[in-house]
Amino acid sequence: MNQEELNNRLSEIEDRLEAIEQPADNRIWLTCDAENSYAVNKFLFEEVPLRFVIATGIDSDDCFEVLYHYAYDQTGSIITLKTKIHDRENPAIESIAPFLPGAEWIEREIHDILGIEFKNHPDMRRLILSDDWPEGVYPLRKDTDLEAVKPGNGETPSRPGFKPSPPKGAGQTVSPILAVGPFHPLQEEMEFFQLTVDGEIVTDIDVRLSYNHRGVEKISESLQFDQIPFLVSRICGICSATHPLAYVQAVEELAGITPPERALYVRTIITELERIHSHLLWVGLAGHFIGYDTVFMWAWKYREPVLDLLEEITGNRNNYGNVKVGGCREDIPNELIPKILKELDQIEKKTEMLTKAVLDDPVLHARLKGVGILSKEDAIKYAVTGPTARGSGVAIDVRRDDPYAAYADLDWNVITQTEGDVFAKAVVRLLETFESIKIVRQALKKLPEGPVAVEVKEIPPGETVGHVEAPRGETFHYVRSDGGNRPVRHKVRAPSYVNVPSFKASCIGGHIADVTITLAAVDPCYSCTERLAVIDNNNKVIHDYDTLLRLSREKTAQIKKELGAPELKMEDI
Amino acid sequence: MSWKIWSLKKSPWVFHVNTGACNNCDIEIVNLLTPKFDVERFGIKLVGSPRHADALLVTGVVTRQAAPRLQEVYRQTAKPCVVFAIGACACDKGIFTTGYHVVGPVDKIIREVDPNAIIAYVPGCPPKPEAIISGVVKALSVL
Ligand code: SF4
Predict the structure, then answer these.
(1) Is the same domain home to A267 and A355?
(2) Can you list the alpha helix ranges (DSSP code H) found in A82-149?
(3) What is the structure's pLDDT at A189?
(4) A536-567 pLDDT tens trace
(5) Region A384-389: what's the mean pLDDT?
(6) Does the beta carbon of A319 lie inside 6 Å of ligand 1?
(7) Residue A192: inside a domain, yes or no?
(8) Structural domain that includes position A296
């Protein structure tokens, strides 16, 4: 479908809509009644069909609003459906999760922060607020007194965030539970997973968020437009170029600002350098999980020069803080270009070596192929993005579909694989690293002369969206301004938010020795495998994290033996 | 110097606790193990259980959900145990100070369970790996 056909398709439901606005060709805003929201959403998701991005809940004084954001990737369009709920006492709306599992989390989140009831939602447990957060206090409502809910101020018992463990001595019918988290002995963020297992087979998986919930969206409402890039770059350290970029692009779109050419190139270069070091980081971690510690050490060693380059350009190894509304803060000095090109040659050589080691290794083929498969249908149902989607044959990439920065001027390919298993995702990431190197090289060659920023006076009232392709998938920001110097609502959706729930499709039915690598395959921001414990019927821990890691590594060793593969030696590489 | 402190200073084993960080501090900590920095040559080792740890490397703002877990992890360590607050977030909540779900910083939460805890601070956002090494060395040399 081209843009016109899409518009025609959307006008089929005109009679259920109150308004259709189209400020730009590929930005469409629909408005409908809360009563019609279920039917319209179903039409958008199943009939058109669009890709679900996220929903935003807003407290706008006289009513609550729920915004459903969709994307149509062929034309790079973002379609937002706005609904209003006028009953402030008992706000409620029909849930769309029954036909759209990718919306399950966000509806739970909106319920947590705004207290909107989603009728017929399959599972309304708490998602992002802590276990001891008082019931009935909604932090994103404008009239909530957040001082009053500080810990120790009249706490009330609250909904449980995860399924309780089976009662002691509950008999043979209760399935053993495998608890994952919240702390990981090696690295990264806290996360809590509960796997129900039957023997060695995973039969259910449940996730508890909240450990890392810092309330960024609320903090953002208290900052000025030009301070926010610093905040959002600290949402996730390893997407610290893409979050601010998505936000900045959204604001620039609203204010009608076009940054200078050179700034667009600098942005491209920095985002791609970030992708290189992020993908290398993942390769290392994946190696660690299946017992290839050498791969871990090498991959992390080879990402160091990239961090050094970024430090030289922006002044910091991570959290670059380099984009701002209207352009970039730091330019890439022309004298640095030969050095970057030289480093890139080195990085390319090393990545080639790593890729060859992975693709030619019969053990890795045997260990990773057919493991943790996410089918194309599931990938669409869960609305996953990035390498997780591309590894399952869904060829979407914001850089190509809705080109931003300088991507449209450069020559590169979107990498896809059709198998959907861990191996396919690894291949996608490795090959993408080469594309990134290619992009940086071209961008450096074409780097136009000139300033890197224009002056910005004020941000007009209105609402806007922006999205970019982060290493893990599409990062999406929604900003609403009332013409003041702070946003009245700022919604952030990181790619892992939609990628992580797809575990339900990829882990269930799998072997527990494959859990660590399957969870790691989507490259979740918190590299998920944290501390694991398998608990049997009597709540006795029978496996802990180390055991699971060992199981995973033993399986690799077993395959190695079966294949008669020699131990990897230094000289081979 | 008591023998306990003396023994602590040789080859400290550390346990890493993330209490709501953006990941960068955590990645820089893991970076310490990799070939470029390789702190294992000083006997510093990342261990998988707080019960084996001489020091905790704590990152992040301490979210409301993480606070009791951090206290539990600290409780499980053998004392004396040095707590390192790594990064601006852990030192003083950094850019997230006003967050409604943030109850830190780290020293406040730890002191609730142990008023005499030994706490060292490594600022930076994120601190460079060199800074973390230097922070650990400095802290150990004044103990
Ligand atoms: S101090 Fe900075 S780098 Fe470290 S966790 Fe906080 S925001 Fe991230």
Answers:
(1) yes
(2) 104-114
(3) 52
(4) 333 444 455 566 667 777 777 777 777 665 55
(5) 92
(6) yes
(7) no
(8) 216-495
Task: Please determine, for residue A56, whether its predicted confidence score (pLDDT) is greater than 90.
Answer: yes
| A262/A113 same-domain check | no
ipTM value: 0.92
CATH of the domain at A262: 1.10.645.10
Which single residue is written with the structure tokens 């008992």?
A90
CATH number at residue B132: 3.40.50.12280
pLDDT at residue A53 greater than cutoff 50: yes
Minimum CA distance residue for ligand 1 atom 7: A234
Residues 6 or more apart whose Cβ sits within 8 Å of residue A253:
A24, A27, A464, A465, A466
To the question of pTM greater than 0.80 for the whole model, the response is: yes
A171 inside domain: no
| Boundary residue ending a domain (A136, A160, A184) | A160
Looking at the structure, tell me whether residues A142 and A275 fall in a common domain: no
- pLDDT confidence of residue A396: 92
Q: Quote the number of domains for chain B.
A: 1
Domain limits for position B52 = 3-142
Say how many Å lie between the CA of residue A232 and the centre of ligand 1: 12
B87 lines ligand 1 (CB under 6 A): yes
Weakest-pLDDT range from A2-6, A338-342, A400-404: A2-6
Query: Tell me: the pLDDT tens digits for B107-128?
Result: 999 999 999 899 999 999 889 9
Å from CA of A306 to ligand 1 middle = 19
Percentage of chain A surpassing pLDDT 70?
Answer: 85
Q: Which of A444, A465, A495 is the last residue of a domain?
A: A495
Q: Report residue A95's pLDDT band, with 50, 70 and 90 as the boundaries.
A: very high
The count of domains in chain A is: 2
A256 and A132 in one domain? no
Q: Which of B61, B121, B125 to mutate to test the pocket of ligand 1 (most atoms within 8 A of CB)?
A: B125
Which DSSP string corresponds to chain B? Answer: --HHHHHHHSS-EEEEEESS--SHHHHHHHHTTSTTT-GGGGT-EE-S-GGG-SEEEEES--BTTTHHHHHHHHHHSPSS-EEEEEHHHHHH-GGGTT-TTB---HHHHHHHH-TT-EEEEE-SSSPPHHHHHHHHHHHHHH-
Q: Is B24 in the pocket of ligand 1 (CB under 6 A)?
A: yes
Asked, for residue A533, whether it belongs to a domain, the answer is no
Decide if B132 touches A, using CB distance below 8 A: no
What is the Cα–Cα distance from A186 to A17, expressed in whole angstroms? 51
Q: Is residue A555 part of a domain?
A: no
Euclidean distance between CA atoms A235 and A239, whole angstroms: 8
CB contact under 8 A, A317 and B18: no
**Residue scoring higher pLDDT (A327 or A497):** A327
